[in-house]
TrEMBL record:
Any one annotated GO CC term: nucleus
Localization, UniProt: Nucleus
Co-factor requirement: Mg(2+)
Principal cellular location given in the protein's record: nucleus
Similarity comment: family membership: Belongs to the XPG/RAD2 endonuclease family. EXO1 subfamily.
UniProt name for this protein: Exonuclease 1
Source organism of this protein record: Wallemia ichthyophaga (strain EXF-994 / CBS 113033)
Keywords: DNA damage, DNA excision, DNA repair, DNA-binding, Excision nuclease, Exonuclease, Hydrolase, Magnesium, Metal-binding, Nuclease, Nucleus
Cross-referenced InterPro entries: 5-3_exonuclease_C_sf, HhH2, PIN-like_dom_sf, XPG-I_dom, XPG/Rad2
Pfam entry (one): XPG_I
Length: 404
């Protein structure tokens, strides 16, 4: 989500724009945070705990630290600029659906193998014929016979123990395979959250006194939730954006990113980013487009480090292509379209970053109602645990791999 590998670029070239929130909400108590709620819901939806429970923890802990939240949602429409990205994600989901069938067949085979393994390792295989050692006729003295018995018993018992260890080892690996397969089945079979899921999230936020606003996606609007959340910050209605989308930094807002299970939440100061990278704001936008975003086609052979070098040297994507004829040919070959068409799509993508969506003139905050929150969780058969926000792994590391 956002600009490809932007976090890695920041850590390498300007780590000072990052601040750790070791106390999470308490580190920014009294602040106002705009939540990219559509994206956050998607993240929690694929997590290990119910998404409503995860969101309930977040708003409960924010309220305890006197942090005010604003829930920001995407509109119903989808940006034309993200059409190719949506096609890519749908292809990824199609692959996952085919993998689902394979994982289900794999689980069936594992269950059958486990049953066969248990049948083959019955307790009778651990026992030896009673009196086996005593029945051996050895024309030796009683002392020598006893020594031989001892040696044979140790061998037999050692053999029994090795069988038991082998069974335990095999069973452990069978359990691991079953668990990993069940996890894969759950992952591949889960569909993206629908309107009913988001509606329920809005109900929860309302019970917690969190105002909700939605992106206006009229024909003149070009944005999604992270842009609206950024606009709230840039216009003084909020202090931070909570999101996983680094597009927030290209708009110039302060971004809070959750570190996941046991991780540290961090603030990335988007107000200082272009200065820290020695770029103008216009050049920062072109760096993002050249490095790779959801809004524009990628440029072959150009990663974020090379993109930064090119923009520092040439100032714009157009100038980069003027100075690099082989790069233009790579674009034509990979995307099967002319340079003019590529630049046309690039200009449309640039508009997404150059403009901001409309925002309310003011925000009306409600009152946190724990009983109302508990009622919603109870209706969805969720018992709120004792963990706080950030104590669960919501699969952040794997979502890109899964194409979500």
């Amino acid at each position: 989500m956002g600009v490809k590998d932007l976090t890695a670029v920041i850590k390498r070239f300007c780590p000072d724009v990052i601040t750790n929130l070791s106390g999470r909400w308490w580190a920014i108590r009294g602040a106002t945070v705009a939540i990219d709620t559509t994206l956050l819901t998607q993240r929690y939806y694929y997590g290990r705990v119910p998404h409503l429970e995860a969101l309930a923890r977040l708003v409960h802990d924010a309220n305890a630290a006197n942090v005010r939240l604003i829930g920001v949602f995407d509109g119903d429409g989808r940006l034309d600029q993200k059409g190719r990205e949506r096609e890519r994600r749908e292809r990824t989901r199609a692959v996952h659906r085919s993998r689902l069938a394979g994982e289900e067949a794999r689980l069936h085979r594992l269950v059958g193998f486990e049953a066969a393994f248990k049948a083959a390792v019955e307790s009778k295989d651990y026992t030896r014929v009673c009196g086996y050692v005593d029945s051996v006729v050895i024309p030796r003295s009683p002392a020598q016979a006893q020594q031989l018995r001892d040696l044979e018993e140790r061998r037999v018992y050692g053999s029994v123990q090795s069988h038991r260890e082998a069974e335990a080892y095999t069973q452990t690996h069978l359990n691991h395979l079953k668990n990993s397969t069940n996890s894969a089945i759950t992952r591949y079979s889960k569909r993206p959250p629908n309107s009913a899921v988001y509606s329920r999230v809005k109900d929860l936020l309302g019970a917690a006194g969190v105002p909700v606003i939605t992106v206006d996606q009229s024909p003149k609007q070009l944005h999604e939730g992270e842009a609206l959340a950024s606009a709230l910050v840039l216009r003084g209605l909020a202090d931070y954006v909570l999101s996983e989308d680094t597009d927030v930094l290209i708009y110039g807002a302060k971004l809070i990113r959750d570190g996941g299970e046991g991780g540290i939440a961090r603030v990335f100061d988007g107000t200082q980013l272009h200065h820290a990278l020695h770029l103008t704001h216009t050049q920062l936008i072109d760096f993002a487009l050249l490095a790779g975003t959801d809004f524009a086609l990628t440029v072959p052979s150009v990663g974020p480090i090379r993109a930064l070098d090119y923009i520092r040297k040439f100032g714009s994507v157009e100038e980069v292509l003027i100075q690099n004829t082989p790069l233009k040919q790579l674009i034509v070959d990979k995307h099967a379209l002319s340079i003019d068409a590529f630049l046309g799509e690039l200009r449309q993508a640039r508009k997404v970053y150059e403009t901001l969506p409309s925002t309310p003139h003011s925000i009306q905050f409600g009152v946190y109602n724990q009983d109302a929150v508990n009622s919603i969780l109870h209706q969805d058969k969720i018992e709120r645990g004792t963990k706080s926000w950030g104590e669960d792994d919501h699969h952040y590391k794997h979502l890109k791999e899964w194409g979500m």
